[in-house]
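Bug #2210: token dump truncated for Cyclin N-terminal domain-containing protein?
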Amino acid sequence: MHVINDKKEEKRPNISSEERRNLFIYLRRLSRDLRADISTLGTAANYLHKLLRRDISKKVCHYTLATSCLIVAADVCEDRGFNKRDVINVSHAILHPGKSPLPVDQPLFWEMRKSMINVAHLIFREMKYKLKCDLELPYLCEYMAKIRERIPQLFAERQVAEKAMGILADSYVDMEFITDHSPKTVALTVLSLTLTALGISIAKYADDEWPAALFYEKLRPSKCAKLRKRLVECLYAGQLIVPKPEIIPEVVDIE
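Reproduced locally. Full output below:
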């Protein structure tokens, strides 16, 4: 199979903006329901973002492609919390709500399994086996550790880490935001949004919108505020709330 040059990744996606958003919402829900690691979701989202700009996305069902991206990412990230049967059942439940799970003795189950494995092999080749991604999660953990040192009790009581992880996971619905900015910028914006939503401020930096100097001096408070606003508008319809899994939009039945 011909491997497309990396320069072609700059092409526009082969699907509309609405279809692309629905696809990443599906990937977010799939990873959530499988309880996949955030690193697995982030890696899969990066693969999908690139592959939607390549010819493979014209030949493969987009939902099969997204599902297979998660399978490959789980392998790369050594995420052993689920298997292919789990992926098939959860994917089927999301795309066909109200229908019964596929029994393993049905031909359709094995056809889906074979299809996902075949597409996973194509993904390895399309990505030229360069499967590691510079993710936002390590930076977010580093920044949260600094916050926890200053407000340990409040950090635990408000579940800052759990909320920030949820917002980061939701952020992969807006892959343009992820790819437009460095992982450090995304991580700091996510943490800033988390603290803002929880009403937490750092006393030492009370006069600033955000203690950028504490973490990443290139991200100034004014820019951080703009990025927070973009995330809130894109992910949560402009409502500054602590996100819950239930607010993730439903994916329409593709039948």
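Output looks complete on our side. The chain is about 60% helix and 0% strand. Marking as cannot-reproduce; reopen if the truncation happens again.
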